[in-house]
Amino acid sequence: MQVIDGDILAISRLVYELCGLTLDASKGYLIESRLGDIAKTAGCANFAELAQKARSADGRAIQTAIIDAITTQETLFFRDQSPFDTLQYKVLPDLIDARAGTPFARRLRILSAACSTGQEPYSIAITLCETLPDAALWNINIQGVDISNAAIRQASYGHFADIEMQRGMKPHLMTKYFQREPGGWKAKDELRAMMTFSRRSLLQPIADMGPFDVIFCRNVAIYFDAPTRRELFFRLADRLTPDGCLFVGSSECLVDLGPRFAPRHHCRGTYYQPCSADSNVLSFPTTGPLSQAIASLASCR
Ligand SMILES: C[S@@+](CC[C@H](N)C(=O)[O-])C[C@H]1O[C@@H](n2cnc3c(N)ncnc32)[C@H](O)[C@@H]1O
């Protein structure tokens, strides 16, 4: 099915409202290739009719299919590596030192926002287990959210095909944290026990979530327009603890969003900490015993 006059406007408005993604006139090929089958199955003569059907009272299933098809779920284990090194060798030791002796010692809350099929939150969980040998005794929750039903289904089941495992999963971690299943590998219960997944749009209010010690929100805001991106990161900053840390994608940067986000650098990794409106960064001690011990062990790779 080919895109005709009026299709792009109708579909791009719908997609923007459903998930915040912007599709301009140059994206006709994307609409054809990703939504063509859905339009055919729904018995629509063109894409404008598909948009209309999706908006109708019984258009929920079509909306879900459109979201699953139009979103880009590209992801891999330990994507870009440096955020996971920074988490392991800097952020976690600092948090653990800062929380020692408080009621929040041994408690970690982490959000993987736009987690796709789960490779990011599973990489976070493995990083935690590799950092904290007694992780099972900790009160840890890694929450994965994504707008795509299909992605969240795979993430919560925790099954990854061989080809997905070959993208970023180190062999010794694969056999340690996954077990063989027909067609791929399934995450072991000890990993899955620390994770929860839900379908959720980042455009919706998130005030009921968190607070989180660490938020990963990578490679999704690049698809949003400037006001949507800005608003999203401000809402995420509100869901961080004062000493919490926010990781964004390797091609993303928050300096244009002003002093609310203080960049922190560790080796090749960058993360952001929230600043209160009237003060400098609410920093936490970074020279505690665990930080020092781990810093002396870890070299920047
Ligand atoms: C390119 S993937 C990034 C996955 C992972 N964060 C990473 O960096 O590897 C983008 C994900 O954002 C999700 N997404 C797009 N719009 C969204 C929204 N409004 N709310 C939540 N998730 C969204 C898509 O479904 C997709 O899984």
- As for the CATH topology of the largest domain, it is Rossmann fold
Q: Class of the largest domain, according to the CATH hierarchy?
A: Alpha Beta
The small molecules bound here are: S-adenosylmethionine
Question: Rounded to an integer, what's the Rg over CA atoms?
Answer: 21 Å
Secondary-structure-based class equals alpha/beta
* Low-pLDDT runs: 279-287, 293-301
The helicity comes to 40-55%
Overall mean pLDDT stands at 91
- Counted up, domains total 2
Q: What is the topology, as strand order, of the major beta sheet? A: 6-2-1-7-8
CATH superfamily of the largest domain: Vaccinia Virus protein VP39
Shape, per Cα inertia axes: globular
The CATH architecture classification of the largest domain is 3-Layer(aba) Sandwich
Number of helices: 12
Helix/strand order, N-terminal first: HHHHHEHEHEHHEEHEEHEEEH
Described by strand count, sense and barrel closure, the largest sheet is: 5 strands, parallel
Share of β-strand residues: 15-25%
The total of beta strands comes to 10
Termini separation comes to 49 Å
